[in-house]
Write a structure and sequence with these properties.
Elements (H helix, E strand, L loop, with lengths): L1 H41 L11 H9 L3 H13 L2 H4 L7 H7 L4 H10 L7 H61 L3 H4 L3 H79 L6 H25 L3 H20 L2
Length: 325
């Protein structure tokens, strides 16, 4: 019975590895096909094969419609090379959906969702929801931009008004200086009254100018505060969403840890009746599963370089421990 189970376990591992290799080959071939179609279309190389247009070439050679060909080309055009490894297990339909998004939108979808386990319909719904949110945000941004432009226009108009007032004040000051410099015999007719009215006019203009400047400064401060409050609220929402995502990841890791400990406990408890190979198989399966989960998690994280270094050190410690056996 033990030998039979060991043989089945070995067969399962071999089949699993074969599937992984085949899946990787399929994904690599997908990127190559998409890249090839793009080069054939952009370079018009299909004419060298006797076809008048790209659509005829795809239809005759691959029984592929022009629409599907464009979808495949969009994958290679809109998904960066650095993201292909992350997206390698998503499948053609999901890749086509992701190719309709910008790179920041792709990052947001893959960070907030387990795309690999989602159905195509679920992913399509998430993308639709994201586009609707971004469309609403764009409208809000356009409105804020228009408000900002109107505010700038008003500031420019106010600046011109202030400049005009200052020029008027300067002109009046020159008039006062000219009146004050007149000979006394000329000024006695009515110089003091002219000077008094001019000085009152200057003071009035100065008060008006100061009030306008103060009003503009207060409006500017209020605009800055409004933008600051809006930015703070958006930042809080983003941090809350990120914290929730981290909590979910921690819970998943805790469940994985509990499952591994359970397997090890079962293997240790039955060691009296099982042979060494059976116990080793339990340890090996648990370690293999944990390692795959760990690398999968690291591959989806933003701290890939940090995790890659830690995993490399772990592998090195495994190698040193193996040499001591």
């Amino acid at each position: 019975m033990t030998n039979e189970i060991s043989a089945q376990h070995k067969q399962a591992l071999e089949l699993h590895n074969k599937i992984l290799v085949s899946a990787q080959l399929v994904q690599n071939n997908l990127w190559e096909m998409c890249s090839g179609l793009k080069q054939m279309r952009d370079g018009k190389l299909y004419k060298e094969l006797g076809y008048q247009n790209f659509e005829d070439y795809c239809s005759a050679e691959f029984n592929m419609g022009a629409r599907n060909a464009r979808y495949y080309i969009s994958i290679i055009e809109n998904i960066s090379e650095e993201k292909r490894k992350t997206f390698s297990a998503f499948g053609t339909s999901k890749l086509m959906l992701l190719s309709t998004l910008s790179e920041p939108e792709q990052e947001k979808i893959t960070e907030e969702n387990d795309v690999e386990s989602m159905t195509v319909r679920e992913l399509e719904a998430q993308i639709k929801e994201l586009k609707e949110k971004n469309s609403a945000l764009k409208l809000d941004l356009d409105e804020l931009t228009e408000e900002h432009e109107r505010a700038c226009e008003q500031v420019n108009a106010d600046s011109k008004t202030i400049t005009g007032l200052r020029q008027s004040i300067s002109s009046l000051n020159e008039t006062i200086e000219e009146l004050e410099s007149r000979p006394i015999e000329v000024a006695v007719a009515e110089p003091s009254e002219d000077v008094r009215r001019l000085k009152e006019t200057i003071k009035s203009l100065e008060r008006t100018t100061e009030e306008q400047i103060e009003r503009m400064e207060n409006e500017h401060i209020e605009d800055v505060r409004k933008l600051h409050r809006q930015h703070s609220e958006e930042l809080k929402e983003a941090l809350s969403a990120q914290q929730l995502d981290y909590d979910e990841q921690i819970e998943a890791l805790e469940r994985q840890k509990a499952e591994i400990e359970r397997r090890l406990t079962e293997a240790s408890g039955s060691s009296e009746s099982a042979d060494d190979k059976q116990v080793f198989k339990a340890y090996f399966t648990a370690a293999y599963d944990a390692f795959n989960r760990m690398t999968g998690f690291a591959g989806k994280s933003e701290n890939k370089e940090f995790f890659r270094e830690k995993i490399s050190k772990l592998i090195e410690s495994f190698r040193e421990a193996t040499e001591r056996i």
